[in-house]
Specification:
Two copies of one chain form a homodimer. By secondary structure, chain A is an alpha+beta fold. Chain A folds into two domains: 32 residues, no CATH class; 48 residues, no CATH class. The first copy, chain A, contains three helices and one strand, in the order αβαα. The first copy, chain A, is elongated. The relative contact order of chain A is 0.16. The mean pLDDT of chain A is 89. At the A-B interface, helix 1, strand 1 and helix 2 of A face helix 1, strand 1 and helix 2 of B. Strand 1 of chain A pairs antiparallel with strand 1 of chain B.
């Protein structure tokens, strides 16, 4: 996601469109990127550290973006996606 | 995120670049969008249902994309973003 101090015109456009579309009560919208990485084998601390390094050096532009790395349970995703 | 059956050239490009960059053991990469919505007041079931509707009708293209809606704890984000 873009850092809070970086202007996000895409998010602002979405936010400004919402009341017109009948959705109130949303005070801010930010748009960003999301990467899903499928890892061979178990995701232990070493693998997670490597992925964090990868995110920091290649996937995110850390001058203007923050990132978080999170492990997802495939079963949980299957449940959530309808 | 793009549905599993939809080709994701951006994700593929990232995946193919990884071994060259010294990152092995990643079998798949998918790239997608992420929206952070700041809600006025508490996020109860009614608000969540509205947001799900909003995601389905305006933020995602459900012909080619799946989406998940998740409530984030601001404290948790502050912790994760270093």
């Amino acid at each position: 996601m873009l850092k809070p101090e970086i202007l996000d015109p895409q998010g602002q456009a979405v936010q400004r469109a919402l009341p017109r579309l009948g959705f109130d009560g949303i005070s801010d919208v930010r748009q960003g990127k999301r990467f899903e990485l499928e890892v061979d084998g178990p995701v232990d601390d070493a693998v997670l550290a490597r992925i964090r390094e990868l995110a920091e050096s290649f996937l995110a532009n850390t001058v203007i973006e923050d990132f978080t790395v999170r492990v997802e349970d495939p079963a949980e995703i299957a449940e959530a996606v309808k």
